[in-house]
Amino acid sequence: MTAAVMPSSGQSLVDKIWAQHVIRDLGDGWALIHIDRHILHDLSGPPALGKVQAAGRRVSMPGLTFATPDHAVSSRPGRTAASFPPGGRLIEALRDLTAHAGIRLFDLDEDGQGIVHVTAPELAISLPGLTVICGDSHTCTHGGLGALAFGVGTSESAHALATQTLRMQKPRRMRVLVEGRLGAHVTAKDLALHLMRRLGSAAGVGHTVEYAGSAVRALGVEARLTLCNLSVEMGARSGLIAPDDTVFGWLAGRDYAPKGGDFDQAVAVWRDLASDEDAVFDREAVFDAAEVAPTISWGTSPDQSIAIDEAVPDPDRAPATSREGMRAALDYMGLEAGRPLIGTPVDWVFVGSCANARIEDLRAAAAIARTGRVAPGVTAWVVPGSVRVKRAAEAEGLDRVFREAGFAWREPGCAMCVAANGEQVPPGARSVSTSNRNFVGRQGPRARTHLASPATAAAAALAGRIVDVRTHS
Ligand SMILES: CC(C)[C@H](C(=O)O)[C@@H](O)C(=O)O
Ligand code: SF4
Q1: What is the mean pLDDT of residues 161-188?
Q2: Ligand 1, CB within 6 Å, residue ranges
Q3: How many Å apart are CA 448 and CA 52, to the nearest integer?
Q4: Which ranges carry the Aconitase/3-isopropylmalate dehydratase large subunit alpha/beta/alpha domain (predicted)?
Q5: How far apart are CA 80 and CA 76, in angstroms?
Q6: How far away, in angstroms, is 134 Cα from ligand 1 center?
Q7: pLDDT tens, 233-284?
Q8: Considering every ligand atom, which ligand is closest to the CA of 141?
Q9: 65: nearest Cα among 92, 30, 100
Q10: What is the β-pairing status of strands 104-105 and 165-169?
Q11: 73 near 42, Cβ under 8 Å?
């Protein structure tokens, strides 16, 4: 008798993708898995490629690896590689090493350059059901297309360059169900911060988080990428969403997507990429979308977030174990417990990063920017996530909207998200930022960061203080 086809019931989405990539079961939950796509950026690419060279190895499948500089590139209009010399040296290294290995580099200002987690999805380098890695923790973003995507360290990246495989432990399965409808001005970013706040920064450790439910299905692709982007901030190395017609329609015609009949065939396969009805999860959490308000961080970790109209929490009323951390966060942020965040004066606004610098994000920020001018004393930047996003925004006239309102319109890259390109929020200044990390010193020494959606950030720029975007007129 021929071997029966294994019934697929009881499998979750991550089980399916995992099973399709196992080359060899190594026992104890470990396996050697195939890596479909490998992305390199200016900070993590050169050390990994250098390691391969130093070991006397070759990049085994250069056609599956793509590179672009993003972290240490200046966002100044008219920038070149020389605008920020330390970053320029990294770009040089990335150019040399990728040319030597035969890897496609999307160089500075070329169509295809930008933050890796914006460019790889928009070029359809990342696709549903693929394993995608990058030496960067926010690689989980690509799960918005239904890929199993996760950050790796330098040794893993070098191993994958040399072999196109990785030795991995199968992640546990977590599902976050969000049912119902998000309210007006409540975005995927608000939802992500809300989930962080309720679940905590360690809820996803060891897991892949599948986001599901009617509120998630209703999200567009950009919003799905935002939601998955913050998975790592709750400790999960990867987060994903079952791909559907929204994703297939978005991918059709993109640079590296299959074309013509191949695309239809791919879609037929991608339709199976969903958790079975009787799929088993190691952990599950259910949320009501209607309960999510515009959400903003008050502290120094993304889970230290509140609804925009709530008061800053009081450490004395918190569990004893979190009091000290909360006091330190309040002190760093220059905030008082029990006071509303609304009305807090703002010095900087940053609309950018792999969390929120796609076209939909810029449209949302521009819709607010149209209604006024940046308040005196506020410096407000818009840094598009990629050259393609920048050009699309310019074609719609969004750059003009921003400039006329007093925002600076910059060149694509990570910029002030991590300040690795020397662009920093000044010490002690308060910033409302659409990025994903508000850690101590993240946007510069002593910089105070509030994470929020593009609309909330733009509204803060106009008001010069933190405001509720729902009542901003
Ligand atoms: C510098 C890079 C490796 C880092 C990451 O891994 O995420 C950065 O992108 C970040 O967001 O902190
Ligand atoms: S935009 Fe920020 S979070 Fe994203 S990869 Fe760059 S530094 Fe990391």
Answers
A1: 98
A2: 43-44, 71, 136-138, 151, 418
A3: 39
A4: 15-464
A5: 9
A6: 10
A7: 999 999 999 999 999 999 999 999 999 999 999 999 999 999 999 999 999 9
A8: 2
A9: 100
A10: unpaired
A11: yes
Burial grade of 393 (CB within 10 A; 0-12, 13-18, 19 or more): buried
Q: Tell me what the mean pLDDT of segment 206-235 comes to.
A: 98
Contact 208, 317 (CB under 8 A): no
Mean pLDDT of 187-214: 97
Per-residue pLDDT reduced to its tens digit, 190-203: 999 999 999 999 99
Predicted local confidence at residue 473, as pLDDT: 61
Nearest-CA residue for atom 2 of ligand 1: 136
| Residue to substitute in 138, 140, 155, 237 for testing ligand 1 pocket (most ligand atoms within 8 angstroms of CB) | 138
| Structural domains present in the chain | 13-170 (3.30.499.10), 295-463 (3.30.499.10)
- 301 with 438: CB under 8 angstroms? yes
3-state secondary structure of 419: coil
pLDDT at position 62? 98
Tokens of 146: 């239904």
For residue 152 the two structure tokens come to: 């790796």
Give the Cα separation of 392 and 371 in Å (integer): 21
State in Å: Cα 138 to ligand 1 middle: 7
Mark out the alpha helices in 123-231 (DSSP H runs): 154-163, 188-199, 214-217, 221-229
In angstroms, the CA 38 to CA 25 distance is 22
Which residue's C-alpha comes closest to atom 9 of ligand 1?
Answer: 136
Ligand approaching nearest to the C-alpha of 116: 2
What confidence tier does 109 reach under pLDDT thresholds 50, 70, 90? confident
Atom nearest to 414 CA in ligand 1: 9
Q: In one letter, which amino acid is 242?
A: A
User: pTM of the predicted model, to two decimals?
Assistant: 0.97
Which strands form 22-27's sheet, in the order they lie side by side? 22-27, 30-34, 165-169
Give the number of whichever ligand sits closest to the CA of residue 135. 1
Q: pLDDT tens digits for 316-328?
A: 999 999 999 999 9
Q: Is 463 left (phi over 0), alpha (psi -120 to 50) or beta?
A: alpha
- Residue 214 Cα to ligand 2 midpoint, Å, equals 29
Ligand 1: atom nearest CA of 44 is 3
Any idea how long the chain is?
473
